[in-house]
Amino acid sequence: MSEKTVRLGIIGYGAQGGMYAGVISDGKVEGMSLGAIADTDPAKKELAAEKHPDVPFYDDYLAMLDSGDVDAVVTTVPHYLHPEMTITALGKGIHTLTEKPAGVYTKQVEEMNAFAAAHPETTFAIMFNQRTNPVYTDLKALIDSGELGALRHTSWIITSWWRPQGYYDQSAWRATWGGEGGGVLVNQAPHQLDLWQWLAGAPKKVFAKLAFGFRRDIATEDEVNALVDFGDGVTGHFMTSTNDVIGTDRLELLFDKGKVVVDKSTKVTVYRLSEDERVLSEKMTMQEVSQLFRGELDPSTLYTVEEKEYESAWGVQHIEVLTNFAAHVNHGTPLIADGAEGLNGVRLASGMQLSAWTGREIDLVDYPAEEYLAELNARIEEEGTFPTRS
Known about the structure:
By secondary structure, the chain is an alpha/beta fold. The protein folds into two domains: 6-129 and 315-338, Rossmann fold, CATH 3.40.50; 131-311 and 345-383, Dihydrodipicolinate Reductase, domain 2. The chain contains 13 helices and 15 strands. Strands 14-13-12-11-7-10-9-8-15 form a nine-stranded mixed β-sheet. Strand 9 (221-231) and strand 10 form a beta hairpin.
């Protein structure tokens, strides 16, 4: 074990917070111990006392921050609260690992990022655990190596988020504008939105069609089709939904010198062209083209195929992020994901929503943050259940 130990406080003892408490108390996170737990639900106090009898419990996270029991916290709470709690914790000198998404609207995330930048003595990270998945770390390294050339197009169909009506009926805040801030884009798909821009770069513009309460009795989006513009002619498509019980998870990236296809986040197929695609186009005779179309041309003269299969182990990725977070606090180890990077996914998701609401393409570089917030608040007011945001 590390000589130094980060005492982590968990804000929100739900499914995620409970999982974190379990792996930490089981000694699976090097350099970290379970310092305290905070939750406003009295039932959670009983549960925590049963599972972690020696760990202090607070019904107010502010009291936990001031207790001296914790060096750091993780915010496993509703999305709207992530920036507020992060700012409060950082302001008290407490290192903070915020859950995804970083927030709901860019204004609150930018305020959080600015506050964190003004307090560099405290660590600010985000739980983008999919960035530790070997499928995507290997793919990131391949793309960054330049071996496949420049990106030309990318598409991600991620519809393996099927959720029945009963899922939404569990809590009054689920899939509401005022309680959750959105549907599939802010709950299920933030990891893919982060990975997509991490691998391909941040899109510059987006045009989207969203269906709101399409196949479920909810207010927010349950189906998304979005086209993005990365600049320089590079385009992309993102499709997600919660109504496909069969589900698809397929990522494609087309480059000048090859193509990558990722199926179910476990199988990766890499096609490497013998030459740049434009060179192949210019050199190939029409006779060879005819042979290619008839299946008479040996494809190995054009490209090679490499297939890789990866195994998935649930929970391991979260442990890696927690371990990395502790290592950064203890030893300055580079973070897997700096908290400030959470802005990209929030801007992309809210840009898709705003495009659907207004029917126009949204500029993600010069992003109309105030317009989005006004549109969001109009929907919160219409719901009449939750306070508007500022």
